[in-house]
Design a protein that fits this description.
By secondary structure, the protein is of the alpha/beta class. It folds into three domains: about 170 residues, FAD/NAD(P)-binding domain (3-Layer(bba) Sandwich); about 120 residues, FAD/NAD(P)-binding domain (3-Layer(bba) Sandwich), CATH 3.50.50.60; about 50 residues, FAD/NAD-linked reductase, C-terminal dimerisation domain (Enolase-like, domain 1, 2-Layer Sandwich), CATH 3.30.390. It has nine helices and 25 strands. Strands 1, 2, 3, 4, 5, 6 and 18 form a seven-stranded mixed β-sheet that branches. Strands 21-22-25-24-23 form a five-stranded antiparallel β-sheet. Strands 10-9-8-14 form a four-stranded parallel β-sheet. A hairpin with a 4-residue loop joins strand 19 and strand 20. Helix 1 runs parallel beside helix 9.
Length: about 375
């Protein structure tokens, strides 16, 4: 029989950080990480940055030996079927039962499928396996179409263009990142993409994908040896919802300590809508750094130590020679004040007169 202890579902930064933090406080309690991904835990941001572009990328969160030395049982390639909160155990599709005293749910997000004829043939860029497949395909291609002009879409398009592929980025928005950063920034992102060798086609949607490219709602056809679907992600809350955890707007509701509505169950990372002390409200965690910080808070709280999510969320995106760095709580804004600087620009976003975020764009010296 498996001894009860600490269990984390998910091997991303939230799950690994939670397990690492709990283990640092309790050396003798069993600690397990369950993951459907067969790969050793890795960081995802470099996949659309350094790794795709062929640069050196530190992907591993920890080595296999690190997990062994810290007595963390890393169980990869396993699908969790359901969480039994009444008996406090996690049940896998293979019939294994893992009893827990403390459980951290960090199941992350799943890519939103491209729901058009032929859409299932498009490549995605969500996992390490996806990145390997895309990188290999790029070696034998001369052109690419990327669908979706969010952060990942922009980075992937610039990366493919950097590999020498004639790359087109297609999206329904007039300009890239318009909903997140506004029209002024989006217009500048078009220039960044153009400088990186990417053609942007906006205000249109893809209606079909075939072996030689995509067909657009405008009637235009865009050829591409590779088609990449960067059509967004959706928090994977299936286990949480089935277990009866409180959810809102497609995410698991947690307090500032990462506690869910069910005793001894915590959540961290993409799936959460967490109370951020600095913001004074619920905030969706959408990026690697936030997930790792939330995982640490969950691990400390589960271990019996005081901890709260009180940091301002932050993330960075690289498009060609320009790095965009955002700090803030996301969501809607009433206005954005843009100021030019020597090597780029900055934007301050406000809602109801209160600053809710800042964006800094900085070009590398070689740009």
């Amino acid at each position: 029989m498996v001894a009860p202890g600490f269990v984390a579902i998910g091997s991303g930064p939230a799950g690994v950080s939670a397990a690492e933090t709990f283990r640092s406080r309790h050396r003798l309690i069993p600690v397990r990480v369950l993951s459907a991904d067969p790969a050793l835990p890795y960081a995802k941001p470099p996949l659309s940055k350094q790794y795709l572009c062929g640069s050196s990328a530190a992907l591993d969160l920890h080595s296999a030996g690190w997990f062994d030395r810290n007595d963390i049982d890393l169980i990869l390639g396993v699908t969790v079927e359901h969480i039994d909160t009444r008996n406090q155990e996690v049940v896998t599709a293979g019939g294994m039962h893992y009893p827990y005293w403390h459980l951290v749910l960090a199941s992350g997000s799943a890519a939103v499928p491209l729901a058009v004829p032929g859409g299932d043939s498009a490549l995605s860029l969500r996992s390490f396996g996806d990145a390997v497949a895309l990188k290999m395909a790029a070696r034998h291609a001369s052109s690419a179409v990327v669908i979706g002009a969010g952060l990942i879409g922009c980075e992937a398009a610039a990366g493919l263009a950097g590999l020498g592929l004639a790359t087109t980025l297609v999206a329904p928005e007039t300009v890239p990142l318009q909903r997140r950063f506004g029209l002024d920034v989006g217009q500048r992102v078009v220039t960044m993409l153009s400088d990186a060798g990417v053609r942007y086609v906006g205000s249109t949607t893809v209606t079909a994908v075939d072996a030689t490219g995509v067909l657009l709602s405008s009637g235009e056809r865009v050829d591409g040896d590779i088609v990449v679907a960067a059509t967004g992600v959706r928090p994977d809350i299936r286990l949480a919802a089935a277990a009866g955890l409180a959810t809102l707007d497609g995410r698991v509701v947690v307090d500032e300590h990462m506690r869910t509505s069910v005793p001894n169950v915590f959540a961290a990372g993409d799936i959460t809508l967490a109370h951020n002390v600095s913001a004074g409200r619920l905030v969706a965690a959408e990026h690697w750094r936030d997930a790792a910080l939330q995982g640490r808070v969950a691990g400390l709280t589960a271990a019996g130590y005081p901890a709260a999510w009180d940091t301002v969320p932050r993330f960075a995106c690289s498009i060609g020679k320009v790095t965009l760095t955002y700090r803030g709580w996301g969501g809607a804004f009433d206005s954005g004040t843009l100021d030019e600087s020597r090597n780029g620009f900055s934007v301050t976003y406000r809602a109801r007169g209160r600053t809710v975020g800042t964006l800094d764009a900085t070009a590398s010296p070689a740009a």
